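Entry 12.
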Amino acid sequence: MPEYGRIIQQLVERCKELPTKEERNEMAMAIIDFMGQRNPQLRDEENYKHKLWDHLYILANHDLDVDSPYPFPTPEQLAEKPKRMEYPKLQGDFKFYGKSILQLIEKAIELETGDEKEALIEVIANNMKKSYNVYNKEHVTDDVIFRHLKELSENRLDLTGIDSLEKSKIYYTSNNNNRNNNNNNRNNNSNKNNNSNQPNKRRHNNNHKNRK
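Predicted 3D structure (tokens):
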């Protein structure tokens, strides 16, 4: 463990040579404190004291007779390979949709039939279409998305009754909101123009009176 340096390695070797266990325990505690000072980043980790004692025993080549507050690891435990991590299951070639889509699908399946469930299904389909286009760099038809959604949900979510995503409620809602916002902006702009023209009209009337 080169991060601890030659000095700590020499201290560990000296600790092993001490004649009494009391002396070895006292020096081992001092070495642990010194190791913590040399590697302060370990203090941010969980159970960092336990790790320091494990490192001390490794530096001693698993041959150190001291009273440790933690069980020392055996060479077999250190040589044991970590277990293989379980990755999220994405069926077939659908990995580009990501784990979040699967979580949303499970949430939609749990909801009772109604407007909220339908809206969430449509949101899922729209996001699936975006993910597909980003990953594959090509246009995808809605019927492909509907088929993928049905397969990912194991036939529990079905949008095949909709001709296209553009005909869904969300599409109309968002477009209507955009139209309303555009109309409001046009009305506001026209009102501002009318208000800005009023002072000019007053000045023109006043000038006309003065001339008279």
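Annotation: The chain has a mean pLDDT of 77. The chain is about 65% helix and 0% strand.
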